[in-house]
Design a protein that fits this description.
404 residues, alpha/beta, Quinone Oxidoreductase, Chain A, domain 1, Rossmann fold, 2 domains, seven-stranded mixed beta sheet, six-stranded parallel beta sheet, binds NADP nicotinamide-adenine-dinucleotide phosphate, ER, oxidoreductase activity, NADPH:quinone reductase, Zn-ADH-like_protein, ADH-like_N
């Protein structure tokens, strides 16, 4: 991974980090000097004074170490740099990042194939667990010192960030930050697909593709907790661990997958969760029983496909709509975590409710966190390579406060 140490300094505007947009490539000093970085950071991120009001946003800046996706690169092309960020403005909170996730989304982003991603360069990082270090005007100072989670989409691969305070969700103190990290985007996605889209109840038969994946490994547990019978496709290297979670594993690699799944559930499935795309959506739909629902939520098997991403999704939505209106007694839908976000209050309320519920289940031991491996932030390239290796169960986690 590159260390960017030759370009001008970032002086981000308040709130700039909420999109992860990094501005012109910049960097001061070497991210390799974790000690120096942390000394600078230690001075900067303590619970300092609250930011000034809107009429005076204040010149205060905080030193951060962050990882930048500079363009269309392999994981080794990620850049570590130090930069400065402004103190939180009105309605915002400064958060020391204790854990940040490596998600499948970054695989799309580094190929320029994630719908709606910011222009390069930007700081990736879909979600984080952190501790509030300071707050801006209008935010309750009691938040300082609280453990929180945030879904960021981009911007979480940093040591410190500014977020809208209303978007922060409390994380139970007793839960390890890295473990909590495994159920943020993955947990909300799994929970909402299961309970808000497919409405899976006790006794239902459910098929989860990619049962070892970040989303899949949470989804199978939530479905089991809801009382469903769960069949999960996965590479055989994960089958024992999936069986331990109460999942009936099926190898996705061999021929005749549809026939083998039909043999496992001759009456069909009440719900199928498919993030693979293309031919898999068609096959999954064919495995539903009457009244069943196919929930599509990704195109992971097509991450290297060429062509327009927009057209790809137009085609998907068209086909799903056709399948649903045909008189076949089955339905198909596409789940999007960010769907409905324009209705901000409702979106936030649901996100808070659902994430809080998943975190509660984790803290009570109903859910088991699967941390595939933990890396310091400066090793984001190695973390991403592992996440892309197609060998892991669960989630690869970055720990930005670790120097090695
Ligand atoms: N719609 C939404 O709002 C939303 C939200 C979150 C995530 N997602 C999507 O959910 C999907 C999973 O994300 P994640 O973070 O859980 O990813 P992940 O941890 O990398 O897991 C990916 C899973 O997909 C399997 N997989 C990948 N490529 C495959 C292929 N060609 N054939 C068969 N299986 C394949 C992997 O199996 P192996 O390990 O055997 O390769 C693994 O089980 C992604 O497509 C992501 O974009 C969507």
């Amino acid at each position: 991974m590159a260390q960017d140490d030759g370009s001008p300094r970032i002086a981000a505007k308040p709130g700039e980090t909420s999109s992860g947009q990094a501005g012109p490539a910049s960097g001061v000093g070497s991210g390799a000097d974790g000690g120096a970085v942390n000394r600078a950071l230690g001075a900067a991120v303590g619970p300092g004074p609250a930011a000034a009001g809107p009429e005076d946003p204040g010149p205060e800046v905080r030193a951060v170490t962050e990882v930048v996706l500079p363009g269309l690169v392999e994981p080794s092309g990620l850049v570590v740099r130090t930069a400065t960020r402004s103190a939180p403005g009105p309605g915002q909170a400064g958060v020391r990042v204790d854990a940040a996730g490596v998600s499948f989304a970054e695989q799309g982003m580094r190929r320029g194939r994630y719908p709606g991603q910011p222009p390069f360069p930007f700081v990736p990082g879909y979600d984080l667990v952190g501790t509030v270090t300071e707050v801006g005007a209008g935010v309750d100072p009691a938040l300082i010192g609280r453990r929180v989670a945030a879904l960021t989409k981009t911007g979480a691969w940093t040591t410190w960030t500014v977020r809208t305070a209303a978007d922060l969700v409390p994380v139970p103190d007793e839960v390890d930050a890295g473990k909590a990290e495994t159920v943020l985007v993955n947990g909300v996605t799994a929970w909402q697909m299961l309970h808000r889209k497919a409405r899976v109840g006790s006794g239902a038969a459910v098929l989860v593709h990619g049962a070892n994946g970040g989303v899949g490994s949470v989804l199978v547990q939530l479905a089991r907790h809801a009382g469903a019978r769960v069949v999960g496709t996965a590479h055989p290297r994960h089958h024992d661990r999936l069986r331990a979670l109460g999942v009936e594993p099926v190898d996705y690699r061999e021929d005749g997958l549809a026939a083998r799944l039909r043999a496992v559930a001759p009456g069909g499935f009440d719900a199928v969760f498919d993030h693979l795309g293309g031919e898999s959506f068609r096959r999954s739909f064919g495995l539903l029983r009457r009244g069943g629902t196919l929930v599509c939520y990704g195109t992971a098997a097509q991450v290297d496909a060429g062509g327009s991403v927009l057209l790809q999704f137009v085609r998907i939505f068209g086909r799903l709509a056709v399948r649903t209106v045909l008189p076949n007694g089955r339905s198909a839908t596409f789940y999007n975590l960010w769907g409905g976000r324009r209705r901000v209050r409702r979106f936030r309320r649901r996100l808070h409710e659902d994430l809080s519920e998943v975190l509660r289940l984790l803290s009570e031991g109903v859910l088991t966190a699967h941390v595939a491996e933990r890396f310091p932030l400066t090793q984001a390239a190695a973390a991403m390579e592992l996440a892309e290796s197609r060998t892991v169960l669960g989630k690869v986690v970055l720990e930005p406060q670790r120097t090695r």
